[in-house]
Write a structure and sequence with these properties.
It comes from Streptosporangium brasiliense. The protein is an alpha+beta fold and 329 residues long. Helices cover 49% and strands 14% of the residues.
């Protein structure tokens, strides 16, 4: 069995921040999960309903791996990413850093992992790997999935080779912390304003505050969108609250990031943004509960209420991001 020494196998709430935490703590950089998420400009929104989808999806963060790239750029980390179509080369790309004493990040499809109880294809799942033997790979996943876990070599090969939405070609990555690391405090304002700019100026109507407003209109039709509302609506709400989001579709994480920032920076714009995101987090959890109730009861009134909440959320988050964008002043 080959394992990296002194790995802090602490599972967090979200998969990508969990993996980032493992890789960075191993090099002595210990940032809270909200700080990792916020410095990576992780917050976003998408209403996704493709032709090949059984039911719409509400996403609350940037695309998989964008958070990692953003964080590396902001803190001046050396990010080495490797992709290949060769399973043999892919395995070598993982074992080499582990043999050299470094944990490695992997992007894969969680459907194939042995320890996942909910078998849903998600090609944007990220884990940290710190060891292997002849039969198993040893990983760190979210606290919800067990933290330090293991899965068979066969399952991880299938997970890494999977193709479909959000998948990558056997992607693996390592991070190197520079000797002269910029202070995370100094990178807070650029991280927040970049996130605000993207949220306030989405290129299409399904993204950012415009996407939330669109969701508020379309969620009212969800009972007609499915043949099995008792399954699909509670499942959609569960993904908003429990699927590695930290609750409230990642708004709890961003609220806590902004709260930490108010302890480091004295800014009325920052305090305004934090207060509005605290309100938004509560409303997102309420919207998820209404969607669940609609699915279980079959009554459209709950979706109408959820639609109203989402329209309010579009306004609240727009105002929050407008305040936060003024930090650059």
């Amino acid at each position: 069995m080959t394992t990296v020494k002194d790995v802090d196998a602490r599972g967090m709430q979200h998969c990508e921040t969990t993996a980032l935490g493992v890789l960075l703590r191993h090099q002595g950089l210990d940032l809270s999960e909200p700080m990792l998420f916020g410095l990576g400009s992780g917050l976003s929104f998408i209403y996704w309903d493709g032709k090949n989808m059984d039911f719409p999806f509400l996403g609350g963060r940037v695309k998989p791996f964008d958070l990692t790239r953003n964080l590396a750029t902001r803190l001046g980390l050396e990010l080495l990413v490797q992709e290949t179509t060769s399973p043999r080369r892919a395995w070598e790309n993982v074992t080499a850093p582990i043999d050299a004493g470094r944990p490695v990040g992997l992007q894969l499809d969680s459907y194939h992992l042995d320890y996942f109880g909910s078998k849903v294809h998600f090609g944007g799942h990220v884990v940290a790997m710190y060891g292997y033997d002849d039969h198993d790979a040893y990983l760190v996943d979210t606290a919800q999935q067990g933290g330090a876990v293991s899965t068979s070599l066969t399952s991880i090969a299938q997970a890494r080779a999977a193709r479909g939405p959000m998948t990558a070609k056997h992607r693996s990555f390592t991070l190197t912390v520079p000797r002269s690391l910029p202070s995370p405090r100094d990178r807070i304002i650029p991280a927040i304003t970049a996130c605000a700019d993207a949220f306030l100026n989405p290129p299409i109507a399904n993204l950012g505050h415009r996407g939330i407003e669109r969701a508020g209109k379309l969620v009212r039709t969800w009972l007609q969108r499915t043949d099995n509302p008792r399954r699909d609506l509670p499942q959609a709400a569960l993904l908003m609250e429990k699927a590695g989001t930290g609750g409230a579709l990642f708004r709890n994480l961003y609220r806590d990031f902004l709260a930490d920032c108010t302890q480091l920076l004295d800014s009325s714009h920052l305090r305004t943004g934090h207060g509005l995101y605290a309100e938004a987090a509560t409303l997102w959890t309420g919207a998820a509960a209404l969607i669940t109730e609609a699915g279980e009861s079959g009554e459209a009134q709950y979706l109408a209420q959820a639609g109203t909440v989402l329209c309010d959320l579009s306004r609240i988050e727009r105002e929050a991001m407008q305040a936060l964008s003024r930090l650059r002043e």
